[in-house]
Write a structure and sequence with these properties.
By secondary structure, the chain is mostly beta strands. About 0% of the residues lie in helices and about 60% in strands. It is elongated and about 60 Å long.
Length: about 100
């Protein structure tokens, strides 16, 4: 968290301790189903360190997703390292039509 001052930017720790715990993280987002039929959808979100090693992941599953409807999500994940991630990726695992 930063706080602009007259002399520059001052960084403020958001917690009570002097260290931020990067092993636990909350992610949120939204998936917009754009197909013309009802589907079960699975989306994976992965997090990587500076050496491209995967250090965290979450799978979001939406059942009976209707066309043109946004589906918001929030998930808590545990990371393998106690430092910020360097990059992330998200992709569709499956998009199965419902008969």
């Amino acid at each position: 968290i930063y706080s602009p001052t007259r002399f520059g930017t001052r960084y403020v720790n958001p917690g009570n301790s002097d260290e931020i715990d990067y092993t636990k993280m909350t992610i949120s987002g939204s998936i917009l189903h754009a197909a013309n039929d009802v589907r079960n959808i699975g989306v994976a979100i992965t997090f990587f360190d500076e050496y491209d090693n995967q250090i965290g992941a979450e799978i979001i599953q939406i059942e009976n997703a209707r066309p043109d409807v946004p589906y918001p999500f929030t998930a808590k994940i545990e990371m393998a390292l106690n430092r910020p991630f360097a990059s992330h990726s998200s992709y569709v695992l499956y998009s199965d039509p419902i008969p």
